[in-house]
Amino acid sequence: MLAGCGVREQIPETTEPYPVSENIITDEKPQLSGSENTLVSEMTVEEVFLEDSMEFAENSAIHTDPALLYHNSGTEKGDIVVCVNAGHGTNGGTQVKTLCHPDGTLKVTAGSTAEGSLTATAVSGGMEFPDGTAEREVTLQQAVILKDLLLEAGYSVLMIRESEDVQLDNVARTVLANAYADCHISLHWDSSEKDKGAFYCSVPEVESYRNMYPVFDTWEQSHGLGDSIIAGLKEQEIKIYDNGSLPLDLTQTSYSTIPSIDLELGDKLSDRSTEQLYRNAVGIMRGIDLFFGKEAGDYDAYIRDTFEEIPPEKEEVSFDAEYPALVDRFTALREEGYVIYEAVPLTSLSMKTEPVSLSETVEEIPFGTYLAFDGVLEAEENVTFLHVTDIGNGLEGYVQSDLVVPVDYAADLQNISDVVDVTDDRYTYDAMMEDIRELCQKYSDILVWQNAGKSLCGRDIPLLILGNPEAEHKFLITAGIHGREYMTSQLVMKMIEYYADHYDTGSYGGIGYGQFLEDCAFYIMPMTNPDGVSISQYGEAGVTEEYAAVLRAAYAAEKQNFIYIRYSSEETAWYDNYRGNIAESAKLNEEDISYEEYLRLWKANAAGVDINRNFNIGWEADWGKTVPAMGSYRGTAPESEPETRTILSMASSEDFECYINYHAKGQVIYFDSYGMEKENANACKKWAQLVSGICRYDLSATAKPTERSEYGSFGELVHLSYNKPGFTLEIGRYTCPLDSSEFPAIFERNRETWAAVCMEALRTE
C-alpha cells in the first residue's frame, strides 16, 4: 500500500519473469554522464513477446510484435523496471475490438468508448495537433527521451514501442507490463484545445469497478504513482489540470496487476517543443523516484548537457497557425482520395462499429467534427451510412449520411466576423437593420444596400447586393416571407457576413470566394415580411392598433381550428387543422390555443394576408382560407399587398439566373411546379441536386397532375410566369419558430451552397 505523498512502503518481490527471447540485441551500454547511479558495467536489451501462459493474454487481439526490455545491472535502481508505453502507434488497431474488462463486464464511464460498452478499440489512432503532427509521433518522441533518462538514472526499462508501428494492442501492452515491469506509464496528449495541462486518469469512484479484479488489488497504488508523477511535474513548473487527475475507466487500468497510469501531458495546444519534452521527462523521473523512495539524480544537469548537442529547434506552430494547418491537412487527405465531411447534428452523432443503428458506438462525435470519408457506403433500410475516420483522433466507424455534410473549405473560426448574433432565438427586424448598417460599413467594397420597398406598417424592406452588381451571373435570394420563419433571415444575413469576411481567404473547388463574387452577384432580400416577423416575435406590440384589430379578429375566427398533436418524431406542437385532415382522436389539447401562442405562429403580413399565396399565379383557385388569418389567406386580389409587389419588382428587375427562396421547416428542397416546361424543369432539378448534395436536404418533386400545386406562391410564379429556374430550401427540423440551438447545424449545412452555385454558373458558361 502507499503512504503519504505516494512513496511505496514496500515493493513486493517480483515473480520469476516469463521466458524471454534469446535474441539479445546488445550486451554493452555506452558510458553515460549524469548522476552516480549511472556507474554501470552492463546493460542488455531483449525482445519480449506475449506468451499464451500470461494472465489475460487470451484477451489480446494484436500481439505479433515484441516489446524491448532494457535491463540495467549493477545499479541501485536496476532491479526496478519501468514500463514506458508510447500511446497509439498500432496500424489497424482501430479496426479491432477487445473486451473493456477482463471479466466481460461493461464500461462504467464514457471516454473514447461510450459508457456501457462491452468492447473498445484495440488501439485508437490518436488525435492530430494543429500543425498536422500525429499524437503517436509525439508520444514516441516523449517515450524515447524518458527511456534515455531512466537508463541514465540506472533504472531498467520496458519499452512498448520504439517505432511508428508496433503490433501490440492495449491489452497486450498491459499484459507485458504486468509480466516484466514494476509500474506502467502510458504517455498521451488529450484531444481538447484548451492547453489544459497535465493529468493522469484515475480510477472512477464506482464500487463495482473498484472491486473488480485486478483493479481491486492495484487502484490505490496506481493513484499513488499518478500523484507522485504529478508532484514531480509540479516541481518542473509544468502546468497541471485541475487537481491532477481525471476519473476514467480504461482498458489499461482494468487489466493492470501493477501500479499503472495513463498520463496526459497536455492537449492539442500545449507546448511540445523538444525542450518541453525533456522537462516533462524530468518531472516524470522525479515522480518515479518519489514513488519508489529513491534519491533523485541531477536531471537538470543532464538536460543542460544534452541540449548542448541539440540544434536550435524551429519555432513551434502556434494556435493561430491551426487554420492553415487544417487546410493543408484537408488537401493531403483529398489527394489520398478522401472526401471531407463535417458533423452537423443538433448535439452529437454516434459513430458505429457497423452500418447498423443498433451496433456498438465507437464514439460520440460532437457538432463541427471533421471526418474523412473513404467512399464506402452501406444502407440499412432507409438509412445510409458512410465509413469515415475522425480527423481529430483517428477513430473509424460508420455515421448516418443525413447528419454530416461535405465541406470544401475550412473556415477560420478564430478570425470570423461576429456582427450577426446567432445565439438569440428572436432575430428581430431592428437587429437586422443594425447588422446591415454595420456590415455595409465594414465591407463597403463588396456589399451594396438599397431599400426595395416598405411594408404595411412602414418598415423598410432591404435589398443587399453581395458581389459585383455588373457581373454576368446574378441570383435573387428571398427569406423571411413567412413571419414565424425568421431564422431564414438570420441565416442569409450570417451567410452574407461569412462570404464578405472570407472574401480573400475562402475557396471552393480551388476557386477563391473573391473570384466568385467578381463574376457573380447575389441580390438578397433577407426579410421580405418584416411586419409578420414582428408579430410572431412581439404579438400586438409588433404592429399599429389598426392591424392589432386584425390579429384579434383572426384569432377569434380560427382558434378552434388549432389542435395540439404529437408528430411521428415524438415532437408535440400546435397544428393548423383548417383543412380537417387530422383526426379528432389525435388531439392532445382540451382547451383552445392561447392568443399569445397563436400570434407566435403567425405567417402572414399585418393584414392577415399570406404573402406566399398572394402572387398572380393560380391565385383564383378556391382552396385556402377566406378571411384574414395567421396563414393561408390569399388576400382580396392578387398582388394586393405591398410586400408582394416589392418582391415582384425585384424579381423582374434583373435577368436572374436562378431564384433561391428560404423557408422553414423540413430540411427539404422543392424544385418544380405542375405545368412548367420540361427544359426549365430539368434546369431546376439540376440546381436543386447541386445544393442538396451539399446541405443534404431531401429533394421533393411536387409537380404531380393528381395533386394541387401551391397556387399563388412565389416559386410557382418563377417557374410558370418567368419560366426561370428556382428552388425553395426548407431549413430546420422542428416546429417554427425554430430554436437557436438549430442554427449552427443549419448554417454549416448551407455555408458552402452559395459558392457551389457560383461555381456551377461559371462552369456552364
Task: Describe what this molecule looks like in 3D.
It is built from 19 helices and 32 strands. The protein has 765 residues and is an alpha/beta fold. Among the domains are: 25-307, Aminopeptidase (3-Layer(aba) Sandwich); 320-406, SH3 type barrels, CATH 2.30.30. The strands form eight sheets. The protein has a nine-stranded mixed β-sheet with strand order 3-4-5-9-6-10-13-11-12, sandwiched between helices. Strands 21-22-26-23-29-32-30-31 form an eight-stranded mixed β-sheet, with helices on both faces. The protein has a five-stranded antiparallel β-sheet with strand order 19-18-17-14-20. Strand 15 and strand 16 form a beta hairpin. Helix 9 (429-442) packs parallel to helix 10 (487-501) and helix 16 packs across helix 19. The chain is elongated. Residues 1-41 and 310-323 have low confidence and may be disordered.
List keywords for this structure.
765 residues; alpha/beta; Aminopeptidase; SH3 type barrels; 8-stranded mixed beta sheet; 32 strands; 22% strand; disordered N terminus
CATH class annotation of the domain at 25-307: Alpha Beta
Can you tell me the CATH superfamily of the domain at 25-307? Zn-dependent exopeptidases
Structural class: alpha/beta
Tally of strands: 32
Largest sheet composition: 9 strands, mixed
Give the averaged pLDDT, no decimals.
87
- The strands making up the biggest β-sheet line up spatially as 3-4-5-9-6-10-13-11-12
Shape: elongated
